[in-house]
Write a structure and sequence with these properties.
- By secondary structure, the chain is mainly beta.
- 0% of the residues lie in helices and 37% in strands.
- It has no helices and 8 strands.
- The protein has strands at 21-30, 44-48, 51-55, 58-62, 68-70, 80-87, 94-98, 110-120.
- Strands 3-2-7-8-1-6-4-5 form an 8-stranded antiparallel sheet, with no helix packed on it.
- A hairpin with a 2-residue loop joins strand 2 and strand 3 (51-55).
- The chain is elongated and about 90 Å long.
C-alpha cells in the first residue's frame, strides 16, 4: 500500500575513506567550448561521481625539477594540475567543473574536465619568486 512506482527511493552510502576531507590533485583541461580561461582561486563547482562541492582551485604546472609552480590562468589547449580541498575520492575518478549551476546561462556550462591523480592531506605548490629593488653587492664568477 505504501509502494509508489512513480517515486523511486534511492539509497546510497560512503566508503570509510570517502568521508575524509583533504587535498586532491587533478589533471585538468579547460573545455574547448568554454569561452573564457579559468583564473586561479576563482570558485568552481566540482562534480565528482554523485557529489558536488564548491572549491577554490590552485592551478600549477610541473617543471623539470618535479616541483609544482603556480600559474595564474589555465593553459589554452593543454592540461595543467589543479589542487583542490574537498572530499577524498579514489584515483582515476572523472571530474566535471562548472563555473555556475544556473540554468539561465546561455553559453556552454561545462568549464573544465579533469581526472583525479593523487589524494593527499598536504600538497606543495610553489609560487615564482619576484625580486624587486637593487642588489647590494654583485658577485661575479
Amino acid at each position: 500500500e505504501n509502494f509508489d512506482p512513480t517515486r523511486p527511493l534511492l539509497v546510497g552510502g560512503l566508503n570509510a575513506s570517502e568521508d575524509q576531507m583533504g587535498f586532491t590533485q587533478l589533471r585538468l583541461k579547460k573545455h574547448r567550448w568554454h569561452r573564457k580561461v579559468l583564473k586561479n582561486q576563482d570558485p568552481l563547482v566540482f562534480s565528482v561521481g554523485w557529489r558536488r562541492f564548491q572549491a577554490l582551485p590552485i592551478y600549477s604546472m610541473q617543471d623539470a625539477n618535479s616541483r609544482h609552480r603556480m600559474i595564474k590562468y589555465t593553459p589554452e589547449h593543454m592540461h595543467c594540475h589543479c589542487t583542490v580541498f574537498g572530499p577524498m575520492v579514489p584515483q582515476n575518478t572523472g571530474v566535471v567543473c562548472f563555473q555556475t549551476l544556473s540554468s539561465k546561462s546561455a553559453s556552454f556550462r561545462i568549464s573544465a574536465t579533469a581526472v583525479v591523480l593523487e589524494v593527499d592531506h598536504a600538497m606543495k605548490v610553489m609560487k615564482k619568486l619576484k625580486l624587486t629593488g637593487t642588489p647590494l653587492k654583485v658577485f661575479k664568477n
